[in-house]
Amino acid sequence: MTRRRWIAENWDEATATLEGAQAEHMIRVLRAQLGEEADVVAGGKVFHSVVALITDGGPGGKAEVRFNLIAEVESEPAMPVTVVMSIFKFDHMEWAIEKATELGVTSVVPVIARRTERHLALAAMKRADRWRRIAIEASQQSRRSDVPLIRDPVKLSDYAKAPSKAKRIVLAEQERSTTLRAALHEAITAAGAEMPELELAIGPEGGWATEEEALFDANGWQAASLGPRILRAETAAIAALAVVASMLE
Ligand code: SAH
């Protein structure tokens, strides 16, 4: 049987602890027992572990599960990909963050694009913590050994100009000549024996504004196509990551 995997909030060399919702779930729903085995992610590494201490804080109290870490287990690294995700309708955006986590991205940068709806842009800052929780849950579910970093929302106009050593690709349905596959092939060849680091920018529901296309162009982003059909933003994100996974992994 595969062991359950938990992502620890705190750890040291020999132990790791779960607190809050994770601890409560483990104690009250799964009825954790002392000596029970689990895989615990601590500091980006996975450890075969056993439950060493259970504190059920009672109603309103602080639940805690402490594990003894026994041995490191080999784990898969994240894909070196950052999704630069224009902020779009929150329910679709949450879905996209969940799926991007399952597909193994390293980080997500929510960006406010020209056509991001104003009320979404205003509410985005307060949403980041919820997006982080979604990423934690999806990491556990997909048995990742780490949790993608979900950055605080930033303006696309600032982010696109900031220096980066990654290969920067902007998905654009207007692009006709370069497919994402071709752009990736180029990046993989240029990186030689190394894994190329990638950034993939996805536009909002209304697409990129003309001045954003110019901004990308002026700052070294390569435009790439996912084919002749117009995809919803969240579909484009997942489709793009599947293409990346098929070429990098
Ligand atoms: N401007 C469009 C919709 C944009 S789709 C309209 O006519 O309403 C939202 C985002 O998904 C785009 O900005 C782009 O990043 C991505 N996207 C959708 N279809 C794509 C395709 N065929 N190739 C590349 N990117 C695509």
TrEMBL record:
Give the Enzyme Commission number: 2.1.1.193
Keywords from UniProt, A to Z, are: Cytoplasm, Methyltransferase, rRNA processing, S-adenosyl-L-methionine, Transferase
Which reaction is this enzyme known to catalyze? Answer: uridine(1498) in 16S rRNA + S-adenosyl-L-methionine = N(3)-methyluridine(1498) in 16S rRNA + S-adenosyl-L-homocysteine + H(+)
Cellular compartments per GO CC: cytoplasm
- Molecular functions per Gene Ontology: rRNA (uridine-N3-)-methyltransferase activity
Q: Name one Pfam family in it.
A: Methyltrans_RNA
Extract the InterPro entries matched here.
Answer: Alpha/beta_knot_MTases, RsmE, RsmE_MTase_dom, tRNA_m1G_MTases_N
Record's subcellular location? Cytoplasm
Q: Does the keyword Membrane apply?
A: no
> What biological function has been recorded for the protein in this entry?
Specifically methylates the N3 position of the uracil ring of uridine 1498 (m3U1498) in 16S rRNA. Acts on the fully assembled 30S ribosomal subunit.
**Which family does the UniProt entry place this protein in?**
Belongs to the RNA methyltransferase RsmE family.
Identification of the protein by name: Ribosomal RNA small subunit methyltransferase E
Which organism is this entry from? Telmatobacter sp. DSM 110680
